[in-house]
Amino acid sequence: MTTPQVQEPAIHVRGLEKSFKELKVLRGVDLAVARGSIFALLGSNGAGKTTVVRILSTLLQADGGTATVHGFDVATQAERVRESISLTGQFAAVDGVLTGRENLVLVARLRHLKDPGRIADDLLERFSLTDAGGRKAATYSGGMRRRLDISMSLIGNPPVIFLDEPTTGLDPQARIEVWAAVKELARNGTTVLLTTQYLEEAEHLADRIAILHEGRIIVDGTLGELKALLPPVKVEYVEKQPSLEDVFFSIVGTNSVGTDSVATDSEGKR
Amino acid sequence: MNKHFFGDTAVLTGRSLSHIMRSMDTIITTAVTPIALMLLFVYVLGGAINTGTGSYVNYLLPGILLITIASGIAYTAYRLFLDMQGGIFERFQSMPIARSSVLWAHVLTSLVANLVSVVIVVLVALLMGFRSGAGVLSWLAVAGMLVLFTLALTWLAVIAGLSAKTVDGASAFSYPLIFLPFISSAFVPTDTMPGPVRWFAENQPVTSIVNSIRDLLAQQPVGTEIWVALAWCVGILAAAYVFAMAAYRRKVS
User: Fold this and answer.
1) Chain B interface test: which of A101, A110, A113 (most B C-beta within 10 Å)
2) Among the residues of chain A, which ranges form H helices?
3) Residues B23-35: b if buried by 16+ CB within 10 A, e if exposed
4) A11-87+195-262 — its CATH code?
5) Which helix H or strand E contains A28, and what residues bound it?
6) Are A102 and B8 inside 8 Å of each other by CB?
7) Per-position pLDDT tens, chain B of length 253
8) Chain A to chain B, count of Cβ pairs less than 8 Å apart?
9) Cα–Cα nearest to A229, from A207, A206, A210
């Protein structure tokens, strides 16, 4: 760690293991996410990113290892963890039948907050959804749904927020909108752990990046450290794990992140 | 119990009730099939059916009400399944709320939706000549019996909604339940049925429930059959509740 860290990390994971039947999804994951930082967990489909997020958000129990979120153990203090977090899952978890505003009011009520209506109006404004606030969420575009989804995660100001593949399936314009929303999230010192398949996204948003592959963290560092870790001698490594090929090629090949080219890059490869 | 259980359940029930208010078609379609059956049996087949009582619509209504509920709970399973699919279920589960309130909200919503459908069917039956001189207490007893039956089937629907793999699977489980009243005393008296069929008809839950409701509405003494009916309802309710909660714990742990 380069920055002096007086407090313990917001998320601390040691030796996390999880199997589904015979399939070992997590084989000892170690992570530490500093308070107030944006941490990207990068990996291909099926690498176990969602499993990590589900364990950290108390939706799934680990088979082994320990994990604390905001100082609380996810296994033994699940209720306290749930008070400290907010999860935005892989599918936009909004209620399509309700309006955008009603969705926000619903979450504010479930968090037992005073004046849910005002909270909803504030968030609609902050995420440029005021005009759409009275419309059913089902009529929203993908980017709008995601923005609503993320703004719902902000209600009650949880100190830790999980975003599981926030831009998967979105068009380039919507992706830029969501990136802006994530930055908005981190502005107030919230710790954000996001998962993504796109290195560009991690590069664009995160203070620190970890690559999860075959159930283990194989690289963990800042973008600069990651690039330094990948000299040409490591090419062999890439060939062994072709599913991460595009990720590594992106590290080597991309210097400036033009948002447009980023979006078309990743679209084109998939 | 979590201190927020009642508040959270109320908020979530409000949410799913507004789903129903915005798609009244689910309540209408729930009522349409039983009404069509009622029209068919009263005006087409009923003339040839000898129930040994006066008005056939009076005879038929209790069974039709059970069919209404049996088809209504398919939507309960459907709504629960959609919540699980859409990710909003996980959002709720990752929030500091009373976890079981998510299920209870669906159960209470099911109760309200089914009672509305039942009232619609009863109103149509009134237009078709259904009459009852039953007093307030008898009506309350009928309502209580229907509420119990709805809760029992609703918890069955919760099991289906939680464990289904597809939308079709979530609602298909209600077909046998809708069919069950046909092999009971709901449409015709059981004494014309051949031996084994008759044995089944007389010993399955629908017959005792139908007979009890019919007697209550016709101001006849209900006898011991109402206890059999209550035992069935409470038994199914308790068993379904246990299995539903077990299925729920598998989902959320």
Assistant:
1) A110
2) 49-56, 78-84, 100-110, 116-126, 142-154, 172-186, 199-205, 223-228, 235-240, 245-253, 259-269
3) eeebbeebbbebb
4) 3.40.50.300
5) strand A23-33
6) no
7) 567 889 999 999 999 999 888 888 888 888 888 999 889 988 888 777 777 777 888 889 999 999 999 989 988 999 899 888 878 888 888 888 888 899 999 999 999 999 999 999 999 999 988 888 888 888 999 999 999 999 999 999 999 999 888 888 888 888 888 888 888 888 888 888 888 888 898 888 999 999 999 989 888 888 888 899 999 999 999 999 999 999 988 877 6
8) 61
9) A210
Instruction: State the virtual CA torsion across B182, B188, B189, B190 in degrees, nearest 10.
Output: -40
Into how many domains does chain B fold? 1
Query: How far is residue B140 from each of residues A243, B118, B135, B147, B234, measured CA to CA in Å?
Result: 66, 14, 9, 10, 17
Q: CA B174 to CA A209: how far, in whole Å? A: 49
The CA R_g of chain A, rounded to the nearest whole Å, is: 19
Q: State the helix-helix crossing angle for B205-217 and B56-86, rounded to 10 degrees.
A: 130
- How is residue A21 written in tokens? 């039947």
Please name which of A160, A239, A231, A237 lies closest in space to residue A193, comparing C-alpha atoms. Answer: A160
Which pTM does this prediction carry?
Answer: 0.81
The residue among A177, A125, A92, A47 whose CA lies nearest residue B90 is A92
Residues from chain A that touch B97, judged by Cβ atoms under 8 A, are 110
- Chain B residues inside the 8 Å CB shell of A107: 91, 95
Domain borders along chain A are 11-87+195-262
Complex ipTM: 0.83
Q: Strand order in A11-20's β-sheet?
A: A23-33, A11-20, A64-69, A72-73
Residue type, B48: A
Distance (Å, whole) CA B177 – CA A164: 40
Strands A11-20 and A64-69, how do they pair?
A: antiparallel
C-beta atoms surrounding B120 within 10 Å: 18
End-to-end Cα, chain A, rounded Å: 35
Q: What is the pLDDT of residues A211-265, one digit of tens each?
A: 998 888 888 888 888 777 766 554 555 555 555 666 666 676 654 444 343 434 4
Phi, psi of A166, deg, nearest 5: -65, -20
Instruction: State the nearest Cα–Cα gap between A2 and chain B, in angstroms.
Output: 33
User: Would you state the structure tokens that stand for residue A107, as one six-digit string?
Assistant: 């979450």
Q: How many residues does chain B have?
A: 253
The H or E element spanning position A30 is strand A23-33
* Token pair in block for residue B100: 């079981």
Distances (CA, A) of B138 to A235, B38, B145, B149: 82, 23, 10, 16
